[in-house]
Amino acid sequence: MRVLVAEKAKPNKDINSTLDREYFISFLHALNSPHQTAKFNMKTEFPFYKETLYKNNIKGRLSGKSVILDLDMSPGDFVTLFYLLKMPQELIDLKGITITANGWANAATVDIIYDILHMMGRDDIPVGLGEFFALGQAYPTLNSTGDCKYRKAIPHGAGGYIDSDTLFGLARDLPRSPRRYTAHNSVKYGAPRDTEHPELRQPKAQEVLQNVMNGFESGRKVTVLTTGPLTNIATFLSSNTNSSSKIEQLYIVGGHIGQNEASDGGNVFTVLSNRKAEFNMYLDPLAAKQVLASKLNITMIPLKILRKASSFTRLLRELALAKDTPEAIFVHRLLSRMFQLHRSHHAYAHIGMFLGEVVGAAIMADRPQLKLVTQIRSVSVLANSEVGSDGWTIVDHRNGNPINLVEDIDSFAYYSHLSTILNEKNQSAIIASFSAQKKLWSTPPPQIGLPTL
Fold first, then answer.
1. How sure is the predictor about 18, in pLDDT bands with cuts at 50, 70 and 90?
2. Tell me, what's the pLDDT at 140?
3. Which CATH number among 3.40.50.10090, 3.90.245.10, 3.60.15.10, 3.40.190.10 corresponds to the domain 65-442?
């Protein structure tokens, strides 16, 4: 059969147009046509819609430990973010958030972080987006798409893509922040294009790290908490000659040092050939190797401790006792939905591993009730480009660097502490939910100062 095969679109006859194809014109004309146009958007649906940014009022308050949170947007990371925002600012002062985009969620999930910050009245906290691939894993032959053999281990569901992107369907219940993810990034930090409107630009992770540390007075340092792959930290250390001098402590949630060959395995459940790795180390083993080989003061919270703090029933029982704040209610709903999936579907058998991520923030906050036990161990990470062994964390007395390895905590005290912090009335939500926000946008503002008749 003889058929006509289209090889390319017709070029635009108007040589002065920025549109180089003829069909672009008709396409844009159809989009801009008032015929059958959308009836609703934020401004038309809500008569008193207003974009408001809330900034933290720190006047007269002492600031505590300056912290940068580096996360990969797993479900547990969002609970960790709530915890840090609830900690008294005299103890924990969250200065910035950096995202390792080769983790558990799509890059656009940064919108959920913006929404949580807006809910808690902290639109002043900068959010930086990191690389999409592990070190050495962006293949130029695939253009901008690239590939990463480690990121392929993230499942669609089971707490991974789709689940993290939507927070199991609950993300839409969060109030909507004026700040959104945008592809208009900073050319200076490796993005393909810039914009004349910096307020619309999605900052890069390296940009946020650099700006936060440059904003300190001489001699002051920052504490970094990582709950995902170490891509951003490794990139920062390699690109700044004096970067390690600006970091006082690095808390790493991840790593696994097995004690029993037969039963004590890692948690990379999607790679059957890799029995000993922990996910955060596996997703970028080269970055983990470089960071652990640095001269930083490192405390590692390994998989053994995360598993000890991963009981759905105990945590939900504590949260159910007093759901006094919007954030505590939201976290309880999120964990309840995760627990329901955990009990009803085999694909979610491993989802409890996200619960333990918050314990890293509690350890960083130096809560005495946790009864922390640490030991100095010389540790290194295998990064041999072999998926069956990459990410293994091993005790290496010859080549490993000494770090503080957390050996034990009081898990019962941890559950009680987390529930107490989330239910504190101080530093609570400014806007409880999207429903509350819709009511605000549908109600005329109070008229102040009008003369009375």
1. confident
2. 54
3. 3.90.245.10
